Structures are given as structure tokens and as C-alpha cells.
């Protein structure tokens, strides 16, 4: 199956596949994306397929489907309390890029390094070979790619589960009790759910060959670090600056996760040398 996919022009596969999926999403009764969000997700998905093939595509689709699912947990209750995501969780362009800009840049970096420019067939390199060369730019970018989505899924899951099921929520900077949905609030239920989510998507990255098992550990640890730092940003800075929207904070969150994973891997390699 993989060899058959690889033999077809990746641009044609990406455009055809994502156009079909966009059409299905357009007519679906429950909207996961706004019309503008659909177009931006279509463009993002093509970029991921052309640069990282079905392997990278599997990771971003896992994030989107699971992230959309957890957003709808306890939706009626969260809407009644005024703490639900806008548009009943349907994602617009700002949500697409807030979640995926870091991952898209990592994927683009891999494609550019391997081809000099994005050309058909550039994504079908030997992932196993790059996994064994952990200090190569490609392997570090692949790790950053998976870590960015591991971080974002951890953040989304922690937030949505915490708002729906958190029995006690505390402001991360003071540990004082605050209402659910408060920026910078954390809960035990949400934190544990976020860790589980980060583990799940990191293992998807491992299963498709983007990272090794040690990379899974770096992704999970990086996601935990970045998610907590994101809560600190929410508690201390977000209300002070109008430009620091949730989407901008999400970009910082995923960027911190990707950088943290790369630094952890780089540090580990230098320790064991």
C-alpha cells in the first residue's frame, strides 16, 4: 500500500485526498471547521502530505480528530457556563494555524532540506535512517513536528477535560482556587488527561516511523513543560496584551514544545557521548 502511494505524484494524491475530505466535511451535519477553516485546513494538509507523506499526515489527522472530539466533551454544560469554545468548537483559520503553524514549519523544513525545494517525491525518504541519525536536522525537525502536536493535543485535552470534569481548579501561579475556564487555571483531571493525550499522539508518531521510542519520551516531557508554561502565560500576560490572543498563545505553546523536545534530545545525545 505504501509503495503504491509513493509511486503516485504526491501533489495529485494530496489535492485529491484532501478535496474529497473537504467535501465530506462540508456536507457533514456537525461542523468541525468553518468554511474558511476548511480551506486553510485543506492547504495545511496538502503541505503536510507533500513534505512528510502519509506518516506526517497521520499525526496531524490524529490531532484534529481527537482534539475536535475532546472539545465537544460536556459542550452543553460548558456553553451554559460561558466557558465553551466559540462556534461550538468549529475551528476557523486562526485555530488551524494557531495549532499547526509550528508543525507546518517543521514539515516545510524537512522538505526543503531533503529537496532544496518542494518537488514531487521529496517526502519519501527513509524515516528509519533519519531516526537513527538523531543529530541530523531532519530527525530533529521530525521530533519537533511530533512534539508540537503532542503539546497542542495535551493543552486542548487538559483544558477541555478540566472545564468539563475538573472538581478543583487552581491558578498555576498562586495555586489559589479559581473558577473553571479561568486563563491559567489547572486541574488534576485536566492535567492527567493532557498527559494521556500527549502519550497517545507521540506513539502515533512512533508507530508511523517519524520518531523512535526515546523521542516519545521527549515529546511527552516537552508537552508537559510547554502546557504548564502556557498556563503561566495565560495567568500572567494574556490579559495585559490585546494582541496575545488564544491563537497567538497556542503558537507560543507549540513552539515551546517543539524546541523543548529538540533540546532534550540534543542534551541527551551529548550526555551519552
- How are the strands of the biggest sheet laid out side by side? 1-2
Count of beta strands? 2
Largest sheet geometry: 2 strands, antiparallel
Residues in helix, %? over 70%
- Pattern of helices and strands: HHHHHHHEEHHH
If you compute it from the alpha carbons, what radius of gyration comes out, rounded to the nearest whole angstrom?
19 Å
Number of contiguous helices: 10
Which runs of at least 5 residues are low in confidence (pLDDT < 50)? 118-133
Classify the beta-strand content into a percent band.
Answer: under 5%
| Strand-pairing-aware structural class | mainly alpha
Q: What's the assembly state of these chains?
A: single chain
For the termini, the CA-CA separation is 39 Å
Q: If you average the pLDDT, what whole number results?
A: 87
Shape: globular
Write the layout of secondary structure elements.
Elements: H1 2-6, H2 10-27, H3 35-71, H4 75-81, H5 93-115, H6 127-132, H7 137-165, E1 169-171, E2 185-187, H8 188-207, H9 213-236, H10 246-272
Antiparallel strand pairs: 1-2
Helix pairs in contact: 2-3, 3-5, 3-7, 5-7, 5-10, 7-8, 7-9, 7-10, 8-9, 9-10
